[in-house]
Amino acid sequence: MRKPLALGFSLLFASCAVGPDYERPKTDAGETFRMAEAPADAPSLANLAWWELLKDEQLQALIKIALAENKDLQKAVAAVEEFQARAMTAKTDFFPNITASASAPNLGRKSSFLFPGFASPFNYYLQGNLSWELDIWGRIRRSNEAARADLLSKEENRRAVVLQLVSGVAESYFNLLQFDDQLDVARRTLHTWEESVRIAQARLKQGMTSRLDTDQFEAERANAAARAAELERQMVQAENQLSVLLGRKPFAIPRGRLLNDQMVPPSVPAGLPSELLQRRPDLLDAEQQLAAATARIGAAKAERFPKITLTGLLGAASPQLSKLFDDPASFGVGGMGLAAPLLNASVLGFQQEAIEAQARQALAQYEKTVLTAFREVEDSLVAVRTARVQSEAQMQQVAALQSALKLADLRYKGGLANYLDVLVARRNLFEAELALTGTRRLHVVSVVQLYKALGGGWSPEMDRKPDSRKS
User: Is residue 186 within 8 Å of residue 227, measured between CB atoms?
Assistant: First the structure.
């Protein structure tokens, strides 16, 4: 028995795993991002923890609720636990498989099989079986590599869900603040139109204006009322959407700072493009899927080679329970088994081709994910820069329209201008104020989207609970 074991160990440690070893595909990341404003060697925005980027205390509280109660995140965590168990199961293939069995004869049954040491249903017996596959071709090692890569893929998917959740809650929260501001603009505009209608009706009774003026003012008032109702509907629907992200039934979302008071970093450095490949969880997820597919090629190749297994059998059998442990009752055998594919060799070849095709699919998916990641970063960078410029221009536009409306209203009340001047000035101011609110929201959301595109919160210490740090 010792010689086969020694031979098995020597074959096991001298063997090598068949199939390709995984290597990260080469990617031309470049030295800088095309739309980056800050120097490439500046610390990346993604190095900040989310609670350092998002300063609104109420938003931080909502994100903490989402991290504790969001159902997608709970599903991702359970998936990690599942693949942890699968990885541990794969490791057990390295060790011998040992089973035991026992039997007692049927009560009242007579038989002529009374030979000690002969296991049969008519004897009392205890039996232990050992089976140990020698991993000469690396099938078990490749399977373990695939299982470990699957586990790491699920870990990165969990981090991707966390990042998606943080950015999703922030974007939904800023949408709510936008609707709040726009609804306030619509209600203020509605109030001014109601005042204009009241004045126009009084002037109509005095014969100082025509019915056309009054009808136009009433039409604009109705338009403002309709926009206010639309914005109120969108606001409630946005609250319901955010409630789902929080893992709760729809409820009224509390607000913190106003949209215009949200803290936006003065500069948003993106860092080095090469860091993106090591930081973004969806990229790392796709890479681990490619690594798992590569390892399965080796496992499939190993299936086409003979399997060598050490086997052993040890036990005792006797027709009498009192003599079960006597020397004549014991039996045992050990040996080595060899199993090789014959008729199913072509089937195993087709299976290997299928797995190789899956690996090519995983490679294409990884390369596509890389391209998508760089596109999202560039899109977010240009959005941050242009939204800042657009917001400044729209603020100047609103200031100019406010001045124009004030003059037009004074001239109309003094009889020096007709109603069209007031109508056009107020309509333009209304649309400009709504657009300015939308651009402010776009600015802060673009910063969040850039943080997400860069894979923010990537370092291991950032995976700790946010309430364990100062917010």
Answer: yes
Q: What are the tokens at 4?
A: 């086969």
441 shares a domain with 380: yes
CB 304 within 8 A of CB 106: no
Q: Are residues 182 and 329 in the same domain?
A: no
d(CA 224, CA 187): 7
Task: Looking at the structure, tell me whether residues 300 and 321 fall in a common domain.
Answer: no
Is residue 88 domain-shared with residue 175, that is, in the same domain? yes
Beta bridge partners of 338: 308
**Tokens (6 digits) for 398:** 């609103």
Q: Tell me, yes or no, whether 372 and 435 share the same domain.
A: yes
- Number of Cβ within 10 Å of residue 291's Cβ equals 24
CATH code, 107:
2.20.200
Cα dihedral 106, 108, 111, 115, rounded to 10, equals 70
Residue 358 belongs to a domain: no
Q: Which residues contact 101 (CB under 8 A, 6 or more apart)?
A: 126, 127, 129
Q: Which residue type sits at 215? A: D
CA distance to 126, 133, 138, 289, 425, per residue, from 145 (Å): 37, 18, 10, 11, 69
Domain match, 327 and 411 both? no
Integer-rounded Cα Rg, in Å, for the chain is: 37
Closest Cα to residue 87, out of 38, 134, 151, 171? 151
pLDDT of residue 120: 63
Number of domains composing the chain:
2
Q: Is residue 349 a part of any domain in this protein?
A: no
For position 91, what pLDDT does the model report? Answer: 92
pLDDT at residue 344 in the model: 77
Residue 350 domain-assigned (yes or no): no
pLDDT digits (tens, 9 = 90+) for 27-39: 887 778 887 777 7
Instruction: Write out residues in the chain with pLDDT < 50, as ranges.
Output: 1, 6, 8-10, 12-14, 108-110, 112-115, 459-471
pTM of the model: 0.82
* Residue 3 confidence (pLDDT): 54
* Domain end call among 339, 354, 387: 339
